[in-house]
Write a structure and sequence with these properties.
Length: about 425
């Protein structure tokens, strides 16, 4: 069977807009039913939409490689590549794109520094930073929660973890936005060149961060990595330590920013469930899992087929590129009863695939859960009357993989 023969009905491929994340869910209901694996000519990717298929792909690294995870959807032009080469940009992908044995080696080293104790130590600072940001708008009765809370908070937290000063927040956030745009966005050549220059600045910042810890260690994760290295574990290089920082400075805040923004919007859209959390904070941990399931900030991930295989009755050739749509899988009725319904009492919500599955499970998941729990605890405690400003339009940056609203305007009763 040829690739052309296995294409689904044209209606699915023609309806598919990979960059529109405003409300893609009705399309994926149809795709899961009619063509759970279909080919997108626009992307040159096979799109995978069902839960069990994606979970099986995550389990099988021999057949489905993660090496393209952090690579651009559109290959860099010579002009863009020259900018990166001239800047000695040395990151083909983050940790998520590594394959065993390199992934196993780097992950094992990182686990020695990024311990549960290191995450637990952040609870106090996270709560303090959350309330400091809330205090800035608490008496106004109206705020854009993205601009005034959820955009900066996860960055401030990951900066504490990585020892980055607050004054660098704006720069790293800009660089992270450039990484999303140049890797997963639909850009002009001029835009790609501009973002390439930003990526060079991002990489040099991470290199400098590690070099400084060799001279002046602090109480942060990079210093832990340097200490482990100096004590004799040379299983990773200085450049790989910088790659770890590069990955965490991005994944450690951009995704959590989106989860918080979309999560709060979702709770306020389901008013009775917001009120339930206000009345009983013990429901919040379960709500965090349901938010991760229902509105994942990482909407899609990618894999490369390493050997011919068959998935959901579709033959996939070696070299086929796959887009794993977590935002569809997490609502699959075959796993989640009434999957399109948001329910903070859902018993199996934690089975979602938002943080991945298997050996590639997200290292930062405990931190994302901790941040989301604390923000919900503080918002429900301080603003039980919190509500969405009526008639606002929600906007999402066009890309395939990261979903979060640009603004969430809210209001509340001021005593």
């Amino acid at each position: 069977m040829t690739q052309a023969d296995t294409h689904p009905p044209l209606s699915i491929a023609e309806e598919y807009d990979p960059f529109d994340l405003l409300d893609p869910f009705p399309f994926y209901i149809k795709a899961r039913s009619e063509a759970p694996v279909f080919y997108s000519p626009e992307l040159d990717y096979w799109v995978i939409t069902r839960y069990e298929d994606i979970k099986a792909i995550f389990r099988d690294l021999e057949t489905f490689s993660s090496e393209i995870t952090g690579k651009p959807l559109v290959p860099f032009s010579p002009a863009v590549q020259k900018v990166l080469d001239d800047g000695e940009f040395a990151v083909s992908s983050g940790i998520s794109g590594m394959m065993p044995p390199d992934h196993t080696r780097v992950r094992s080293f990182l686990n020695k520094g990024f311990t549960p104790r290191r995450v637990e130590k952040l609870e106090g600072p996270i709560r303090q930073r959350t309330n400091e940001l809330i205090d800035l708008f608490a008496e106004t009765g109206r705020a854009d929660l993205v601009r005034q809370l959820t955009y900066d908070l996860p960055a401030l937290v990951v900066f504490i973890l990585l020892g980055v000063p607050d004054e660098d927040v704006q720069y790293v956030k800009q660089w992270a936005a450039s990484r999303i745009a140049i890797t997963w966005g639909d850009l002009t050549e001029e835009e790609r060149i501009w973002h390439a220059h930003q990526m060079v600045k991002y990489w040099r910042y991470c290199l400098d961060l590690i070099e400084k810890r060799f001279v002046e260690p602090q109480d942060d994760l990079p210093s832990d990595l340097v200490r482990i290295y100096q004590e004799g574990d040379r299983s990773i290089t200085k450049h790989e330590m910088a790659r770890v920082c590069y990955a965490m400075l991005f994944a450690g805040h951009e995704t959590t920013s989106n989860l918080l923004a979309e999560g709060i919007k979702t709770l306020l859209t389901h008013r009775e469930q917001w009120e339930a959390l206000c009345a009983d904070s013990s429901l919040i941990p379960g709500a965090v899992e349901e938010l991760a399931r229902y509105c994942p900030s990482i909407f899609a991930w990618r894999r490369l087929v390493r050997k011919p295989t068959t998935l959901a009755g579709v033959d996939l050739p070696e070299g086929a590129k796959l887009l794993l749509v977590l935002g569809s899988a997490n609502r699959d009725e075959q796993c989640f009863y009434q999957g399109e319904t948001f329910d903070i009492h859902r018993e199996n919500a934690k089975h979602h695939l938002t943080f991945g599955h298997g050996v590639k499970y997200c290292l930062g998941a405990p931190l994302a859960r901790l941040e989301t729990r604390i923000v919900l605890e503080e918002l429900t405690r301080r603003f039980p009357s919190l509500r969405l400003v009526p008639d606002q339009k929600f906007e999402y940056v066009p890309n395939t993989s990261f979903r979060g609203p640009s603004h969430v305007w809210v209001e509340w009763n001021v005593a």
